[in-house]
Design brief:
This protein has 205 residues and is an alpha+beta fold. Helix content is 38%, strand content 16%. Helix 3 packs parallel to helix 5 and helix 6 crosses helix 9.
């Protein structure tokens, strides 16, 4: 599949961005609902070219149905894909990174140059693969609480966890978890955010 797409990118036929959203990933690939997905009978393979303005809410919505998905392959703006797959302590890492990486194994496949479209857009695109994690390596006891904590941690990137999570975690909580309250949210991995959420679920303020 990757070779098929790579050849298409290396030798593109001009196509409008509007039509690109309707093209299949490859001629022989089973699409959503065929029951022939890699993850088991009846699980979906989701493929699409996601517009920038709806990509984040759509990705979060799909995450709620990860148990019914075999895999996802999406083309998005390159900067969005970079945020999706970003590692902690990088400029691109943020709420989107944590929430998706909590539920999916993420892989940046390749860049799609502007010349693949007609007219060429001003930004580059990229293809990403998302495979649901089953079982979850770091399950949150309360996923809604986990989401609120991640959102709070990145609400003011320059502020420390002591400030952004003050409604959730007291100093003794940070000490019990072995997490320095003077850190910023961008340095914590998924496992640490889940640990905070699970602690708060048992020890609410």
């Amino acid at each position: 599949m990757r070779r098929t797409l790579s050849r298409a990118v290396a030798h593109p036929s001009p196509v409008s961005p509007e039509r690109a959203a309707l093209l299949p990933l490859s001629a022989g690939m089973p699409l959503a609902g065929t029951g022939r997905g890699v993850g088991g009978e009846g699980r979906l393979r989701v493929v699409g070219n996601l517009p920038y303005n709806i990509s984040t809410p759509l990705l979060f919505h799909l995450a709620d149905y990860a148990a019914n998905i075999a895999d996802c392959h999406f083309m998005l703006q390159k900067e969005v894909v970079e945020r999706m797959v970003a590692a902690p302590d990088t400029a691109e890492y943020g709420r989107l990174s944590v929430m998706l990486q909590y539920r999916f194994a993420m892989e940046y496949l390749f860049t799609v140059p502007g010349g693949a479209f007609n007219p060429p857009p001003k930004v580059e695109s990229a293809f990403v693969r998302m495979i649901p994690l089953a079982p979850l390596p770091y399950p949150a006891q309360d996923e809604a609480l986990f989401g609120r904590i991640v959102t709070a941690a990145f609400s003011q990137r320059r502020k420390t966890l002591r400030n952004t999570l003050r409604d959730y975690l007291a100093p003794e909580g940070f000490a019990a978890l072995g997490i320095a309250s003077g850190l910023r949210g961008e340095v914590l991995g998924v496992a640490q955010f889940v640990a905070i959420a699970n602690y708060c679920a048992i020890n609410p303020q």
